[in-house]
Amino acid sequence: MATYVYDDFRVTFAPRADGSFDVRATDHAGAQASGVFTTPLGDDELQRAILRVARSNSRKAGRDDAPVVSRDIGSDEPPALDAEQIGTLLGSALLSGGIGDSYERARMAAEANGRGLRLSLSLANAPALLSVPWEFLYRRPRFLASQRHTPLVRWLDSGMLAPPPAIEA
User: Fold this and answer.
1) Of 144, 76, 163, 80, which is closest to residue 106 (Cα–Cα)?
2) In 19-118, which residue ranges form alpha helices assigned H by DSSP?
3) Which end of the chain is more exposed for a tag (fewer CB within 10 A), N or C?
4) Of 46, 28, 73, which Cα lies nearest the Cα of 136?
């Protein structure tokens, strides 16, 4: 199996007063782009969508313990989102404008040099985004995290490590 070498595309989030997030992206060469990210689904909508995807996958895998869900035609509830739809919403919210252009340039440069592009999401300053299913991030024609050449990692920058205590013999 071939070993991949990756360029990093680091994305950091900083909360804003209006509930959105300032986004700064830095590619492996140090080029930066900025933008604003707004979660495309509310917390409740997001959790329901994730549960629906999980239940659907359990049934597809043949698990009998998956709850049976019936459809009420008279319901005012919006139609269920699948993983691709959730990922498309996330991809459109994060990878649009300057951030998306910068990501695409970095991906093409990495590909031209025979490397992959690792999308590193720094969530240390944005704990509200920890529950977002970033692994569903979808940019036509694929889920980024499911591709060997475009992995996605959550990165918690904890700052400087404290020096280890001295051990006296």
Assistant:
1) 144
2) 43-60, 83-94, 97-112
3) C
4) 46
| Consecutive H or E run containing 13 | strand 6-15
Percent of the chain topping pLDDT 70: 80
Alpha-carbon distance of 106 to 64, in angstroms, equals: 44
Give the pTM.
Answer: 0.76
Find out whether 7 and 1 touch, Cβ atoms under 8 Å: no
Specify which residues 14 forms β-bridges with. Answer: 22
What is the distance between the alpha carbons of residues 51 and 157, in angstroms, rounded to a whole number? 29
Return the domain boundaries, the chain: 6-64+80-155
Cα gap 166→117, rounded to integer Å: 39
CA angle (99, 7, 10) in 5-degree steps: 40
> Tens digit of pLDDT for each residue in 24-82?
999 999 999 999 999 988 777 777 777 776 776 655 555 555 555 554 445 555 556 78
